[in-house]
Hints:
By secondary structure, the protein is of the alpha+beta class. The protein folds into 2 domains: 5-167, no CATH class; 210-258, no CATH class. Helices cover 57% and strands 7% of the residues. It has 12 helices and 6 strands. It has helices spanning 5-13, 20-31, 37-49, 56-66, 84-90, 95-109, 145-156, 172-190, 193-203, 212-223, 227-239, 243-258; strands at residues 70-71, 92-93, 113-116, 123-126, 133-135, 141-143. The strands form 2 sheets. It has a 4-stranded antiparallel sheet with strand order 3-4-5-6. A hairpin with a 5-residue loop joins strand 5 (133-135) and strand 6. Helix 2 (20-31) runs parallel beside helix 8 and helix 3 crosses helix 6 (95-109). The two termini are 34 Å apart. The mean pLDDT is 95.
Amino acid sequence: MGWEPAERFRQLLEHEKFALHEGALCIAAHGCPDMDLDAELDLLDSLADSCDRSSRSQMLHSLFSELGFHGNRADYYDPRNSFLNEVMRRRTGIPISLAVLTIAVGARTGFEFEGIGLPGHFLIRDRTEPDTYIDVFAGGALLDAQGCEELFHQITGGQKGFHPAFLAPVDNSSIMERILGNLRAIYAQRRDYANLEWVLELRTMCPSAPAEEAKQLGLINMERGRFEVAAQRFEALAEAAEDDDEEQLRHLAVRARARMN
Length: 261
């Protein structure tokens, strides 16, 4: 491969600001081990060069109408929808992957977008027009705050209360965590432990990922026969744990080491 995507991902997360598309491609490289990073970056540049940069509306029209990018409603839970390289080639994805693509294309065409973490349906907005939101899953449709609230109630079936904080911009590491969270749910439902393992490994690098996921990763390491890795993980977690949790984690470490023989 010529580069180590997990280490590159860790390095990116050390910075508050990093190129979202680079983080997304580090994730994609785990699901697509033959991915050529330079080729993907060239493709992203090519897509941006194909867009009309005379105005934001024209750029969005180029991306979603002329180039044909669209939300994958037919197979929403296909993991390829979360891999930026696959999104660029198949021209379909889910809200957050299409958002990362649009933010990257925007940066190359003179428009500065930021991610908006509406629960259940990721959006973006133009930093120069913060009261207008863009639904990339719906072909770049524009929404005001009321439209976002209506969309939220539509998604949740009116079962959850809306809060204006849902329309706050989110930082880059949170976007990476959310992409990985989508993949975690898919692979867990499929009991695909091989893919779930790398997803959790990357998730545990994210600063706000739940601490419980490190324990889950250790259990999957054991399931995959990586007993030494699991034991070391449980022992490290035990060092920082409270009394009851420490005892349980040390017991798991002993179990893992016992299975090495």
